[in-house]
């Protein structure tokens, strides 16, 4: 190839580097061929990392050429040999991401490279996050860490809804807030802290308490281009779940909710189970469901959603699960685990993680084809 200093290159998705030593790597491709590459004066493991992330020829020369003409010539020859093997591609997609953004999210880009296909690069997945808009209902013990995760991951736009103020008791389990946030509205404190975390995330706070499905539908429509609704608020119990499910059905926006110390179901309106699908099953098995729900909320497995309280480490696990499900969905990389299912985390008598199937209920009052009366929400 003709080495152009402005050419932007990356490793072809059919190849991978395996480090052997500082000056030695193994280049392998998907058909099983491998090439042992060595160079006495170039740190090939570092060079391989830069190529994996994507780089211009100029940057590679500046970093590995050491200002020496012979070294630069040798480096260019090495890159030409890689190109002849079909291991390099022109990463034009990377040009749509600024150098500052590449540096900020280089770990993400490196992670996303494991999912690359010919038509989808790491930058493709990163840009899906950058262009995403999440609507987060509740900025408390679970919503706060979620917002923190999303801002650090590079989600471009987040709208958060909460009407509470930051209290001292919030701080032990909410990674988003600090002591000087005490007394501030959560949406205001969240906006300040997101701006400190990342300039790449736009946050809009709505100081309100959701009181109906119609109110939430209005917010979704006014927010524009919402990709996912995330429910972390737990009150009023079951009413908020129904309102969110109804709003998802009406607007067509997917919905993911927390489930005690767990996550799910992930609702694709009209296709997968909604969170209210569980109500009729519970009501059939437990006629006194309201009293049972109150007891359930006070059980050890449900303390994250009750006023009894829990410690921050136990909140972080379902928050991380929920964040990963949302990121997997919007980037289209890893498989979403909570379609028609709930993943629960229990710390009662040890740590237990289980996945419970939750098929769509044809008699669900929200997403089913037949309607059944339930107590007014």
Question: Care to give the gist of this entry?
Answer:
The protein is an alpha/beta fold. It contains 13 helices and 14 strands.
Q: Key features?
A:
377 residues, Rossmann fold, 2 domains, 8-stranded mixed sheet, 3-stranded antiparallel sheet, 13 helices, 18% strand, elongated
Plain-language structure description:
With 377 residues, this protein is of the alpha/beta class. It has two domains: 8-102, Outer Surface Protein A, domain 3, CATH 3.90.930; 131-357, Rossmann fold (3-Layer(aba) Sandwich). Helix content is 37%, strand content 18%. The chain is built from 13 helices and 14 strands. The protein has helices spanning 44-53, 57-64, 69-84, 99-104, 106-112, 122-130, 143-153, 186-197, 213-223, 239-251, 277-285, 289-297, 312-331, and strands at 8-11, 15-21, 24-29, 34-38, 55-56, 88-90, 133-137, 157-161, 202-206, 228-231, 255-258, 262-267, 341-346, 352-357. The strands form three sheets. Strands 9-8-7-10-11-12-13-14 form an eight-stranded mixed beta sheet, sandwiched between helices. Helix 5 (106-112) packs across helix 6 (122-130), helix 7 packs across helix 13 and helix 9 (213-223) packs across helix 10 (239-251). The longest helix has 20 residues, at 312-331. The protein is elongated, with a radius of gyration of 25 Å. Mean pLDDT is 87; it is low at 300-306.
